[in-house]
Amino acid sequence: MPINNLDDKDLMLLNLLQKDCMLSLQALADAVHLTTTPCWKRLKRLEDEGYIRSKVALLNNEKLGLSLTAFMMIKTQQHSREWYKQFVDAVQIMPEVMAFYRMAGEYDYLLHVQVADMKSYDAFYKKLLNSVSGLIDVTSSFAMEEIKYTTALPVLAREA
Fold first, then answer.
1. Which of 43, 36, 34, 53 is CA-nearest to residue 13?
2. Helix, strand, coil in percent for the chain, rounding step 5
3. Cα separation of 113 and 15, whole Å?
4. I need a surface site. Which of 20, 51, 126, 145 has the fewest CB within 10 A?
5. Percentage of the chain with pLDDT > 90?
């Protein structure tokens, strides 16, 4: 029985798109041994069903002068719906925030922040603190080296 109604061709298409979403329809179809029309129909279904959220270009942060990667762990005593909405709304519009998670454990929230340098991080930090009240502990860690980074999910075709 296929997992989530996906067969091996669907999984292969998803893997190919994760590696390069600019592949032509013909290249995708050839790779999964289909003609272009059934391949296009599969891609359309995968999009319509939400398996494909978006198609993007991944940019080089170093070349763009955004070489400081920070991870902010945040604690708060505020847990009302109104505060949560205000906090989420404030963080959502901050372009420096690459990822934003509500956590279980010692910290309530985790932010992945990408900025040019420590001065830029300090400006971001102040902007965040001035945007929302109720943050009682903000701890930051800074990446010294990126060892692995991927946006590809571990989508694997099943063994025959």
1. 43
2. 40, 20, 45
3. 27
4. 145
5. 92
Residue 90 and residue 37 in contact, taking contact as beta carbons nearer than 8 Å: no
Q: What is the pTM of this model?
A: 0.86
Type and span of the H or E element at 142: strand 135-142
> CA 96, 101, 103: angle at the middle one, nearest 5?
145
Stretch 62-71: mean pLDDT: 98
- Spatial contact of 135 and 129, defined as CB atoms under 8 Å apart: yes
Which residue's structure tokens are 């999984």?
Answer: 11
Task: Give the CA distances from residue 142 to residues 15, 67, 112, 116, 117, in Å, rounded to whole numbers and listed in that order.
Answer: 31, 11, 10, 12, 11
**What is the DSSP annotation of 65-96?**
T--EEEEEEEEES---HHHHHHHHHHHHT-TT
CA 98-104-106 angle, to 5 degrees, is: 95
Q: What is the pLDDT of residue 5?
A: 87
| pLDDT tens digits for range 109-150 | 999 999 999 999 999 999 999 999 999 999 999 999 999 999
Q: Tokens representing 129?
A: 């603190």
- Report residue 4 as tokens: 């989530």
- Amino acid identity, position 48: D
151's enclosing H/E stretch is none
